């Protein structure tokens, strides 16, 4: 699943123009719609080293920027992943940036405006990002339940690219690339995904991603009964509510 | 109670197919339905070393991944249990993964997708999991009172296997395997369990698990009056509410 | 008050059968009903060293399991009380276990199922409990105001023994054993206790324990006017509400 | 204000009987009613060294029991005030014990029952209190707004002594002992205090203590206009509400 | 603005009598009414070194009392500002004492009663305050929104002095002392302040302080158009609400 | 975008008069209205070194004032950015000061009144700011959802300058200065911005800033279809709500 991205709506153009104009980019879209995939493919295309940071509320700015480590009698500075990305001019990918702590987000501000620099408090050192450095962040606006939001002063630093799931033909082709199922099975899985995604009334927190289809396809190709593969690979994954699971299983039964 | 698992619904097949397709597996089900048991039996069957981590909100990622320890004048890195599991290609079992802290869950993300790798921040080292490595997590969807939930981006990484209690014949046989009570007593205990599980109106947070039946059987075989054994091994364990306890004791009185 | 336990409802049998079947035991009951007393008496009877841990939300797992201490240039591991109990095969008493932090409770899980082992993260060492080791916990279900509860996955590990106050004859005898008051005074104190315990409408958070009767008896034997002894040893101890205190004092006045 | 206590209701007898019967004592009463005064006077009378600990939510058990301090290359254990009190057989006074953290309160449990011992976790050492050691705690039940409460398992360890303000004659005499005002002025101040204390409708969080009368008396004797002294020493101290202050000032104007 | 205080209501007498009677003093009043000014002037008058501590919820007692610092191989004790004040017999000013943490407030208790001593836990040392030492605290009762309150046991240690803004003549004279504006401009500024303070319906959190008038006067004297100076020095400072700002600007327009 | 500021309402005059009268200045206005720009331009004009601190709730006062670092066997003091600004007489810019922690804000108090000094607790050193030092803070009153507010005692230290967006002619000129788009495109972008800003009913948390226009202009000049550039550079950046995005895109479609 690692080095292919099926373009939907000029994603590659937007990404490249941001890169060449030194503008940071925000990817917005649901879980598993291909955000990480796009970043990985673009890193290869632009010949950039990719450094990925999964943001969360327990990560401190020291985790990202670096810290002094005591080794024997010496004190050694160790760059964190963000600092390494800036020094080496890499592609820095901040996954789910809205979940990061405030001090982390704020430390990234001078890196994402015209200054393009990172200030390391502990070393009292400012690092200028080389021309090749690019900062990409991702954000999932679909969580309904009042999750943390980005502040406007952070949001407005990024060009914003909305991403969504593939259409069924593209998704079917992607399943074929990534697994060894028959084209008929791939098509049935992609169609099933479309049906599930349309059924907003299922009240799912998030709907089926391509990843689930690929996992299910692998189990089917390995010999598992297709319905059971759909149950454990899709239905039981998406919900814990017996009624929703029942409805999803009915859809799966109709598909296979 | 340690090396036997009575299959209900293809649990072993699902587990094995996940293992051979390198897919992580999530076990969903109530306390004491046999999740840990399945994992232990599969570790033996697949000839894997089992490393179990009980997740909770007080465990930091350093506890799981490793830390530097100061020993005399030296600083020594000590792998945590997750790191040891990855390095050695073991079966890693994350019990009650929904209770883990965010940074712990996020650190497991690259381990549970196609990358199958673990990044050790402090060492700036990425460990590639060997083919034999498998990650299994457990989750109890039955807690009603708004306990922590898994984020979709975590959930959708796992194939999902729902588990439930044994039927009374299988449960009776299991009691016989694990204790020395008579087959009559075993059957009575299994029947009692079925009755309690059906009585949803008892408003129990969780219902009787096989473990309680085994404990009670041991006390009976040791000579304790059966009703008293049922009181201290089942009724008083399941509730603190005098009325519920009274109703459970009535059921026990009817059984013995 | 230290080496006598007056049995009410087979407490000693249940305790012993748990001990010989290697089952952990949970004592449930109100403050001062004799839980600690039972444990102490059983430790002597079973010839076990008793290690008592008072659980509370500020105790970390390091406090219980052990930690590295820096002494001069050396780093020395120091076992905590739980680790010492396991290594030496002692009777471990976890008082008010429901108040412990999650990581503490979870660390005790492998110690309280068939594994009977303790894993020391920092040492990467697993200690197998010897046959003589027993784990007993206590829990007070009577706190009404939504205090912390035990999770089912913890609760169901223990055989559960409900305890209550002594009847007035037994309580009177106990007072005589522990103080030097006259048998008449002892009987009056025990009767007073029965009356207070029956008066549920007093809305007391907890009712009078034997400990209060013993304290009061000591003050009376030392020459304090009996009513005053009852006021400072019982009435003022049980409540801060002037009306409740007034009612309790009236009861005391009627008794002496 | 330091070495005189005017007995109201057998306080000295209760204190002494607790001391000689090795029972811990809880003093209950409003701010400034003489709790600290009683303890200090009894320490002198019983010829005990007094160690006072002001409990609050920011004090850790290490602050009270002791800790290792690093001094140059050495690590030295330093006893905290509670440990020093136990080792030396002093009178330990825990002021406002209800505000202490849970781990602090729990560490005191074995010190306040028949065991009379203190366990020092870090040293793995148990100290037996000598016969002269006594533990006294104070507690203010008058705070209305849901302040922290003591758990029954803590409360029931102590004999409980309720204290209140002096009557006006005793209070007037006390003012004379502690300041140089005329007996007429002392009487007027004591009378004023009685009036304020009776006016429950003033909705004061706490009412006037003897300390305020003494401060006011000092200002008067130093030459301040009596009404102004009452304003700054009593009225403005008791409230921030302009209407209540106005009413208090009216009372003061009537008195002088 | 530093060495002049315009007395309103015997502030200097109250301060001095407290000083000579060794009574701690609490200054109560709104922001900018001259509390700090009074303290500074009294320090000069009484020839005391002034040590000011701005209390806030992030200050620990170690910040105030002192701590061990590791310098090279040595451990050195460094007194905090409160300890230095006590040792040297200075005037200690605790600004906004209601915002201090509980452990800080409690550490000050023995310093503010007849004991006049400070206990340094870490050094196990008690420092007796010399006769010249005085403790003054400030407190702003005007914050409406449920800010932290002082506990009665803290409040009742202090004599309490209420302060308010100057009348317009005194305020006009003060502006003349501190800036170089004309007496006409000074009077207009003072009158403007009176008007704003009377308009309670403006719903301002706090009203205009002398400091704002002085800042505005400086801008006017430097050549700024008076209305603009009033806008940036007063109106925009007092509120963010467009309607309130509009009303304040109208008042300013009427004044100049 | 770095060395040009287009004056709207005497911003430069107010800034300079504050500088020469040694008054601290607060800039109030929405995200991207030019606050940082003004500060940077004034630093150049006044020939001051600019030190910018982005305030947030995770920054401690040690981060800003300085700390001891252990390097090998030595302990070295390292000034934080605020201390460096004071020592060197720089222009200190505290961005979003309302988000700073209380201890940080309080440490700045003596720096922002007539004292103009900074106290370093750890060094027990007071630094007097040289004449060239100026403190500027920014604050965004537009966040509606109850974000933290500044306390009056902090607010009233600063002269207050309200800033808003440029009018469309000035904004169009600014776009031309900072990008290479045609003057026609610049005008269309500025007009679009005015339209969006007027539409209060869009319910945007913050409206479009000049930064977004500049980013969009860069993408257009690089060859991106103007509507797409507007979508990714403006519409998708400002909102996650599909209806609002749709309305913004309609406006963009009308513009190009």
From TrEMBL, chains A, B, C, D, E, F:
| InterPro entries, sorted | ATPase_dyneun-rel_AAA (IPR011704), CbbQ/NirQ/NorQ/GpvN (IPR050764), CbbQ_C (IPR013615), P-loop_NTPase (IPR027417)
Mind listing the GO molecular function terms for this protein?
ATP binding; ATP hydrolysis activity
Q: Which UniProt keywords apply?
A: ATP-binding, Nucleotide-binding
Positions of the ATPase dynein-related AAA domain: 24-158
Please verify whether the record's keywords include Nucleotide-binding. yes
In this chain the CbbQ/NirQ/NorQ C-terminal domain maps to: 171-253
Domain of life from the UniProt record: Bacteria
| Family of this protein | Belongs to the CbbQ/NirQ/NorQ/GpvN family.
- This one is known as CbbQ/NirQ/NorQ/GpvN family protein
What organism does the record attribute this protein to? Answer: Candidatus Dojkabacteria bacterium
Lineage, highest ranks first: Bacteria, Candidatus Dojkabacteria
